Amino acid sequence: MNKIYHSGKAKSKYSIQGVVMKMIRLVFLILFIQFIEIPIVQAVDGWEANIIVGVSTAENKLSFGQMADATDDIDGRYDVPAMLSGNVKAYFAEAGKSYWRSIKALSIGQPKKWNVRVESPLKGETVIIKWNSKKLPSSGAISITDTASGKVTDMRATNSYSYKNEGVRELLIEVAP
Questions:
Q1: Chain centroid offset of residue 108 CA
Q2: Judging by DSSP bridges, how do beta strands 112-119 and 46-55 pair with one another?
Q3: Which of 131, 176, 126 is nearest to 155 (CA)?
Q4: First to last CA, the chain
Q5: How far apart are CA 168 and CA 149, in angstroms?
Q6: Is 113 within 8 Å of 80 (Cβ atoms)?
Q7: Mean pLDDT on 73-89
Q8: DSSP letters along 69-135, please?
Q9: Average pLDDT, stretch 142-166?
Q10: Whole-angstrom Cα distance, residue 165 to residue 86?
Q11: Distances (CA, A) of 27 to 22, 33, 34, 72, 111
């Protein structure tokens, strides 16, 4: 142990009480940061969820959501163009282009919509669209509407929707306040 000589007497540089107090402060700080950080990040940043569109053995993953610094237009930071090929071509149709990821502005109280287009040459096969309802925003209503059949599915109440493939299908995801 290091000793410091002050006024001719040897004193310990570190006291046990001082070390214990520093450790308690550090533990408190770590617990405080963990407790505070998660809700702030989620509330400020926004949310993002995925849907998996599959037919036979082919799948595409699409990501959608809202972020505080995104816009409702195409953002190079958030929106990812789709590279389409294979037996399923699922994408967000925006501004005449196709995207695998579409993040819109986080606007409290304003509804948001995502147009989903699914194309497949495997006619007669079942197309299944899946999602994790726990990744969806916790407030407001969120649904996926099959524009061909008019069927509306509450995305919190169930985690999938399916239909018989006829070639091209358009769906609409809506988040309402």
A1: 17
A2: unpaired
A3: 131
A4: 63
A5: 13
A6: no
A7: 91
A8: T--SS--TTT-EE----SS-EEEEEETTEEEEEEEEE--TT--EEEEEEEE-S-TTSEEEEEE-GGG
A9: 97
A10: 15
A11: 9, 10, 11, 42, 42
How far apart CA 32 and CA 100 sit, in angstroms, is: 37
Q: Which two tokens stand for residue 116?
A: 């989903």
Whole-angstrom distance, CA of residue 55 vs CA of residue 23: 56
Residue 49: the pLDDT is 96
CA distances from 12 to 3, 40, 129 (A): 5, 43, 68
Spatial contact of 114 and 172, defined as CB atoms under 8 Å apart: yes
| Amino acid found at 76 | G
Residue type, 69: D
Task: At 97, list the tokens.
Answer: 């282009």
- Looking at residue 150, its pLDDT comes to 97
Ranges of each domain in the chain: 3-45, 46-176
Between strands 46-55 and 168-176, the pairing is unpaired
Place of tokens 């702030």: 40
Which pTM does this prediction carry? 0.73
Tell me: the pLDDT tens digits for 62-74? 999 999 999 999 9
The CA distance from 21 to 130, in Å, is 51
Reported as a single tens digit per residue, the pLDDT across 12-38 is 556 777 666 766 665 554 544 444 433
